[in-house]
Structures are given as C-alpha cells and as structure tokens.
Design goal:
By secondary structure, the protein is an alpha/beta fold. Helices cover 47% and strands 13% of the residues. The protein contains ten helices and eight strands. The strands form two sheets. Strands 5-4-1-6-7-8 form a six-stranded parallel beta sheet, sandwiched between helices. It has a two-stranded antiparallel sheet with strand order 2-3. Helix 1 crosses helix 4, helix 4 packs parallel to helix 6 and helix 8 packs parallel to helix 9. The two termini are 16 Å apart. The mean pLDDT is 95.
C-alpha cells in the first residue's frame, strides 16, 4: 500500500495553551515596540487558524505600527516572543492541556508501518517547538511545515509534504496526505493541494463553520482512536 502522511495543526488540535501565545506576543510588542493598550487595541485581531507572520502584521496594523518599522524590528520581536512564550508556559495554569485522544492517536500512528506524521502549523517553528516541549509532545514530530516557512497555510502544507518526503525518502500521493486541524483554514489548505482533511471541533471554531468548509470528515474530538484510524483508512490493530 502507498505510504500515508498525517499532518497535524498545533493549537486547538494537539493542545490548548490557554492563550499563552497571545499573551507572549503582547509582552513582545510591549518590550520591543513600546506599545500601550495592547489587549484593548488588538481585541479584533483573529488568531485561530492563521499564521504567526500574518497575525503579527495584523497586530502591528491595529497598533498603528508602520510596516517598515515592523520589518526592522521583526527579528527582535520574534526573539522576545520566544522568551515570553517560554516564561508563560513555565507558569502553572490548570487550563492548559493536551487535547483528548491526542497521545493515544499519535502512539497508534507511530506503531504503523508506512505511516508518517508531521506538523502543519501557522506557528513559527521555534514557537511551535516551545509549545510541544511544554506539553511533552515534541518526540512525536521530527518535522513538518511552519509559519516561518511561508505566510500562507496552503504553501506551508506543500512545503511540509516536500520536506517530509525528502527526509524519509518517500513520495506521498496527494490523496494519501491527511490534514488534521480545528479550523476552516486547515480544510482549505488541504483542498488547495489535493490532500484530504479531518476537521476536529476541539478549538474555537463553531461546528457550523467547520461543516461549511466541507472537510472529508468531521469529529468533535480525537478521543475515539479507532474512529480516527478508520477515517484515515487504517485498521484498528
């Protein structure tokens, strides 16, 4: 059988960081760009399913920071974000968690021959690694695609597959690539590349919006490992 690749989104799909990323960005903007009123001035900026570079650009626009200034300070801003994110995730917060069924599913996929697992996330790569390490999930993911690769998620998906093909010496047929995510953006990036999509309502997007996106499959959570494996075309053994 042709090899299968399963790509996972991070926030809202694998884990719930309870807003640590947004708080860390706020800290970074205040430290590097000396802004006031971050929370109030950026409350309309959308985060779910969007790439970090696009989120940062929208935050800067809401804060009336000129694009040229943002570009000059981008690397300092990212470094401050990574530092603040690590500090945020080091604090106790009972709201933070690995989402239901995730570990069991990753373990099950790891036991199967011919099945690859990777990331497809809008997070900057170092930020994604910080989050995964904080939740003990880093060992499941050797590679993938990240917001630091491209501002558009559909391109991140394409780059993730190409990178994992090179690393594994394999070729994945588009119909044998699954994208698992919690937003309509995950569904759209899969469709744009001819991949298949499993939407999971474990994040912040209403079920109706996920249904309208037209995923190949839709689940409330990833708790039923056998059901997910059946959707992916894998047996339960």
């Amino acid at each position: 059988m042709a090899p299968l690749l399963v790509l996972f989104d991070v926030d809202g799909t694998l884990l719930d960081a309870a807003g640590a990323g947004k708080r860390a960005l706020g800290t970074a903007f205040r430290r590097v760009l000396r802004v006031d009123g971050f929370e109030q001035r950026t409350e309309q900026v959308a985060f779910a399913g969007r790439t970090d570079p696009r989120i940062v650009a929208d935050l800067a626009a809401a804060l009336t920071i000129a694009p040229a200034r943002l570009e000059r300070e981008r690397e300092r801003l990212y470094r401050a974000y990574y530092d603040a994110l690590g500090q945020e995730l080091a604090r106790d917060d009972p709201r933070r968690r690995v989402l239901p069924g995730v570990v069991a599913l990753l373990e099950a996929l790891g036991r199967r021959e011919g099945v690859g697992v990777g990331l497809l996330t809008g997070n900057l790569e170092h930020g994604a690694r910080i989050k995964l390490a904080a939740f003990g999930l880093e060992r499941y993911f050797a590679g993938g695609g990240f917001g630091s690769d491209h501002v558009e998620r559909r391109e991140i998906a394409r780059l993730a597959v190409a990178r994992l093909e090179t690393a594994g010496g394999l070729v994945y047929e588009p119909s044998r690539v699954w994208v698992i995510g919690d937003t309509e953006h995950d569904v759209a990036c899969a469709r744009a590349n001819g991949y298949r999509s499993l939407a999971v309502q474990s994040g912040w997007v209403p079920r109706e919006r996920l249904e309208r996106a037209g995923p190949d499959a839709l689940l409330d959570t990833l708790e039923d490992t056998a059901a997910v494996l059946r959707i992916l075309g894998l047996d339960e053994g």
